[in-house]
Amino acid sequence: MEIQHLMSGQLDLAQMATPQPLGFRGPVEQAQGGDKARAALHKAGQEFESYFISYLIKNMRETVPKGLLDRKNEQVWYSFYDQEIAKLSTEAGGIGITAFVDAYAEKLP
């Protein structure tokens, strides 16, 4: 079983030596495309997790009673602050959404 797995990952030199049509993507190009797809999925997972955490923080902030001096510019500032906290928490490991997306991407062919 393990030998078959190792053999399937090796390049077939005879196939690579034969001329191929212009649209052909060889095993090397396909592997690089897979890495790009995984990187894109990782980035999308991070962005979604950051947005989700920002949304959670925003909703938690709405449960706190407003003060007497509540202003519109404070709300704008807090929205930027919440986005930055969400971004930093995602980069530090987040709540696991990015890890879940990465685990899913590893299962893809």
User: What's the rounded overall pLDDT mean?
Assistant: 77
End-to-end distance, in Å?
18 Å
**Weakly predicted, low-confidence segments:** 9-18
- Number-wise, the strands total 0
Order of helices and strands: HHHHH
Counting helices, strands and paired strands, the structural category is mainly alpha
By DSSP (H or I, 4+ residues per run), the number of helices equals 5
* Biggest sheet details: none
Helical content band = over 70%
What is the gyration radius calculated from CA atoms?
Answer: 23 Å
Shape: elongated
Strand content: under 5%
Pfam family, one: Rod-binding
GO molecular function: hydrolase activity
Organism: Nitrospira defluvii
Protein name: Putative Peptidoglycan hydrolase FlgJ
